[in-house]
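As a warm-up, study this chain.
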Amino acid sequence: LLGALVSLHELSRDNPKWEEWKLKGQVLLNQKKED
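Now compare it with the structure written out below.
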């Protein structure tokens, strides 16, 4: 997870991966709330 955060930091803000990861993060957060 830490590695993912580090690579996120190295990406430029307009990288298309940001949207992708933001969506994945939302899904993960939602799953945790349901537990």
